Amino acid sequence: MKDTFTHQGMRKRLVDVLKQKGISNADVLNAINTIPRHLFMDSGFIDHAYVDKAFPIAADQTISQPYTVAKQTELLCVKSGDKILEIGTGSGYQTAVLLEMGATVYSIERQNELFKKTKRFLPKLGYRPKRLIFGDGYIGLKEEAPFDGIIVTAGAPYVPNPLLAQLKVGAKLVIPVGDKVQIMNVFTRTSATEFNKETFGEFRFVPLLEDKN
Ligand code: SAH
After folding, report:
1. Is 64 a catalytic residue?
2. Which residues carry out catalysis (predicted)?
């Protein structure tokens, strides 16, 4: 579990790449500059940790591309102290970005292997989510709702209604929607019954799976 000057230098260059690609939120860039992404990846891939690409983790899943993590986090408009729900814990990297920004984080993962691995791993780096849940993200986390923001880190075939219902007024749901290619959708709750939808281009995610399909 080493973070060397070499890794830190590579992270600075990654942050420059993300700035060139249009990421401007200083808190997001600071989180990416701070978090040792190479430690979230299997050792065989460590040399690739600071290029702007997605990579395989356990259970046929991926750690999202740094640009995608940065863009989704920027779109979520996270402030310190916000209560955020993440769907798709995976490696825990996105969870760490949210924690580094001062959010209180709840995160749901449906694959037991990843859930257990990440639950053990994050505290080793000092990252303490409020709750990691082994369960189905489609239903959200009603007992802890409402949230200041909800971020879905897998491609959803449609927008699950429970996630919209669990937003505070003024809060955002950031969710990639589509099958092979996803469009980044941002829903802002404008009142108890109304939502404003914006879209932000194409991304590629592993699928948000229903039941045990
Ligand atoms: N945020 C992660 C991205 C992992 S990829 C990271 O930074 O590494 C997406 C994750 O969503 C996978 O781990 C996958 O197992 C999980 N997932 C897929 N369908 C899900 C569902 N219905 N509920 C919760 N998690 C789900």
Report:
1. yes
2. 64
CA dist., res. 178 & res. 115, Å (int) = 25
Reduced to 3 states (helix: H, G, I; strand: E, B; else coil), residue 171 is strand
Q: CB within 8 A of 26, min separation 6: which ones?
A: none
What is the tens place of the pLDDT at every residue in 73-88? Answer: 999 999 999 999 999 9
Q: What gap in Å lies between CA 105 and CA 145, rounded to an integer?
A: 12
Q: Which residues of 202-213 are buried (b: 16+ CB within 10 A; e: fewer)?
A: ebebbebbeeee
Distance in Å, CA 89 to ligand 1 centroid = 5
Please state the pTM of the whole predicted model: 0.97
Cα separations (Å) of 73 from 31, 134, 193? Answer: 10, 22, 25
CATH number of 5-203: 3.40.50.150
| Residue 123 predicted with pLDDT over 60 | yes
DSSP 8-class letter at 207? B
Rounded to whole angstroms, how far apart are CA atoms 115 and 120? 9
